Amino acid sequence: MYPYYRQFPIQIQIPGFPQFGEQVSFPPFAPPGFGQGGIGGGAGQVGPPSGPPPSFIPQETDFGAFAVDPGGIRRCLYRFTFIRLINGRGFWFFPTFVGRNSVAGYRWRRNQFRWEYFGIDLNRIRSFRCS
């Protein structure tokens, strides 16, 4: 016979993670101080911006000479940022996370008139400009 044991799962709570079965909105966390009026003037805002980005497209010559590395693009967190890729395409972006090799946030889909969560490697970005 099998030894007797309890037939229910063990629940473990890990700090910073939701309980099993708990509903979580995406992204599930906010940076420290965000939502308390601290960062970027977007008090309480964790998702995409509530409206569209600026209507103009910066010319390539308007871009500053910023290194496309985490330190360079980090100053654009929670700000409208125009990204120009290596292949020449460009789009408005609202960064919410900067990692060692990538950046994530919301990309403006102008044909669909909406923000879409998006991530990209920093080595694919040729230049950027924050507003």
Automatic annotation (TrEMBL):
Give the residue ranges for region: Disordered. 35-54
**Gly residues: bias regions:** 35-45
Q: What is this protein called?
A: Transporter
